[in-house]
Amino acid sequence: MRIAAFLPELLRHLFKKPATIDYPFKKIAVPPGFRGTPYLRPELCIVCKACERDCPAEAIEISDVDPAEKRFRMIIHNDRCIHCAQCVDSCPTNPKAMQIDNLHEIAADDRHKLKAEWIYVRAVIKPKAAAPAAPAAPAAEPKA
Ligand code: SF4
Ligand code: SF4
Hints:
The chain has a domain at 39-125: Alpha-Beta Plaits (2-Layer Sandwich). It contains three helices and five strands. Helix content is 16%, strand content 19%. The protein is an alpha+beta fold. The structure holds iron/sulfur cluster (2 copies).
């Protein structure tokens, strides 16, 4: 009885294309906006630490290397990262010092190999030039 109920379903699927792909031998394109692996563009980082503060997985670590030289170290622990991209959203620079790529095949046999590290000098943001002052309104004609 149970086999009879199952048989039509089995026959239907025998002639269908597989629903899965032969990964990892066949790759699929990742969709636009895919959140892969975060990375730093050190030349843009002002070391505000917003990314470290807001990371829900505590995957970002920023420390002093040489305070006199304004030299810092950032480590992203990709073994902890949950790929939420909050660090990118929190980064206030424009363009963003914190970015996320579409890499997802980053598995390793040792979690310490998943550490990404940068040692860099804090970026200096140049103040924007002041906007030109609006022309003064013409003085009102004195009434007779
Ligand atoms: S993507 Fe999310 S979990 Fe990963 S480092 Fe950024 S804020 Fe943390
Ligand atoms: S990456 Fe962005 S949010 Fe993180 S410390 Fe640098 S400037 Fe601040």
